[in-house]
Design goal:
By secondary structure, the protein is an alpha+beta fold. The protein has a domain of 77 residues: Beta-lactamase Inhibitory Protein, Chain:B, domain 1. Helix content is 31%, strand content 21%. It is built from four helices and five strands. Strands 1, 2, 3, 4 and 5 form a five-stranded antiparallel β-sheet that branches. The mean pLDDT is 79. Pfam families: BamE. GO terms for molecular function: protein-macromolecule adaptor activity.
């Protein structure tokens, strides 16, 4: 009886281990996540930059800068780095230069387009045709009891 239980447990263990080894070959063992770092920068955001914008307006458009050099506060750096799961990393950089509180110059691999296309309209105008409205129930009841000649 004891030998039979050992044999059954050995065979059961063997079957489970062989099944696990075939699963390990078919299923990928490592999942690599996307890694985003820095300020999200898009061309649409950069196209909103204009000369003489104040620092506050720039923060409204792009967010707080990633780097502000404490020795030269007239330069702000924005960096956005993305590495999609296990692929090569790519980076967008932009440097903004200020004279006092006003933006004077933009450098980097994302620069404002000279004449960006206007954004597509989000509103639509529909003209409804005129129609004759029927009298409401209230108007019909009042009309029965009124002495107006219509």
């Amino acid at each position: 009886m004891l030998h039979t239980l050992r044999l059954i447990s050995f065979l059961t263990t063997f079957v489970f281990l062989s099944a696990c080894s075939t699963l390990a070959v078919d299923v990928p063992l490592v999942y690599k996540i996307d890694i985003d770092q820095g300020n999200v920068l898009t061309q649409d955001m950069v196209n909103q930059l204009r000369p003489n914008m104040t620092k506050r307006q720039v923060i409204y458009v792009l967010g707080s800068p990633l780097l502000i050099d404490p020795f030269t506060t007239n330069r702000w750096d924005y960096v956005y780095s993305v590495q999609p799961g296990g692929e090569d990393r790519f980076e967008d950089r932009i440097a903004l230069f200020f004279a006092g509180e006003n933006l004077i110059h933009v450098e980097g691999n994302l620069t404002p387009a000279l004449n960006p296309a206007p954004p597509p309209p989000t509103e639509m105008t529909i003209e409804a045709p005129k129609r004759e409205l029927k009298k409401t129930l209230y108007e019909m009841i009042v009309g029965v009891f009124s002495f107006d000649d219509d």
